[in-house]
Design a protein that fits this description.
The chain crosses the membrane at residues 98-119. Keywords: Membrane, Transmembrane, Transmembrane helix. By secondary structure, the chain is mostly helical. The chain has five helices and two strands, in the order αβαβααα. It starts with a helix and ends with a helix.
């Protein structure tokens, strides 16, 4: 990814992750869920690791030729983060069957609640 290389060369450590909130899912239901889970991501989030480099990161993002005034040694930063166990993306995947079961329980709870209020009101 060109952006990762740009920030690495500039001395700004970043963490890039997928932004699922901006995914375009026009088909609802199981086809939309399947397409969303199996297709490559459309959008990414760039997280600047050091708060004091945020403004310079915005300048570097807009101008590839920008020279960072306070660069960090990326190799030592990455080694320290790896030693601490940071920047790991959790691998949490909920099968569609579990989502269907959860939806069924919520729906059945609503039906029981509705019948309870109809019968005992």
């Amino acid at each position: 990814m060109e952006l990762k290389d740009r920030f690495k060369a500039g001395g700004i450590p970043i963490f890039v992750d997928v932004d699922y909130s901006l995914r375009d899912v026009s088909a609802n239901g199981t086809p939309g869920i399947y397409r969303s889970a199996s297709s490559p991501p459309s959008f990414f989030r760039i997280n600047v690791c050091l708060d004091e480099q945020f403004e310079e990161a915005k300048l570097l993002l807009n101008d590839p030729g920008y020279q960072v005034k306070h660069p960090v040694d990326i190799a030592s930063f990455d080694a320290e983060m790896k030693k601490l166990g940071a920047n790991k993306v959790p691998d949490i995947k909920i099968p569609v069957n579990y989502l269907n079961l959860i939806s069924l329980f919520i729906f059945m709870g609503f039906i029981f609640w509705l019948f309870y209020h109809i019968i005992f009101s």
